[in-house]
Amino acid sequence: MSKTAIAITCILLSALSFCSSANAQSRHTQSRDEATKAIRKTAYEMMKAFLTQDVATFKRHSAKRTLDLIELAYQAARQEPRYQEEFQKAGITNTDQFLNYFMLGMATQYLQGMPISPDAAATRVANDSTVTFVSDSEARIVLRCTGFARAKLVSRAWKMDLTDWLKEAVLKEVSNPELRARIKAL
Length: 186
Description:
Elements: H1 3-51, H2 55-61, H3 64-79, H4 81-90, H5 95-113, H6 118-128, E1 129-135, E2 138-143, E3 146-154, E4 157-161, H7 163-173, H8 177-185
Antiparallel strand pairs: 1-2, 2-3, 3-4
Helix pairs in contact: 1-2, 1-6, 3-7
């Protein structure tokens, strides 16, 4: 093979390698764009579910870790004498009822501080947040410089992990040392 043929072969291989790398970069960017859209859609649906006390939708979009935190918060609240009478009056006997009760209180407080519709609030959360990918299956969602959530890809669906955002508030209400330790470990 002549020097010219070797040089042309090297140039063609370099060009093919560059094109392949550019295509991979394009696919990666495209998949991140699609993932960002899916995450924003999930964030919107979850926030709207939260503000309208739609427990089933909220749970469907929640990461397991968030649901575990809610279960532990319910266990802790059931043990607290200050909540027992309130739970009895409200007829709270399971985690879903507790979640509905919890969402009602939090949503009321949120909407009083920001008097807009649940749809507008959910749109604001979805559109005004920054999505930063930690990996292909995890992203951090930040709203106005506060850690809002993590999105995790589970079985081709994005799930919202609110554990870090909720954990501090939950720990303020929990006095049982065993449950506090389990919550901190989440």
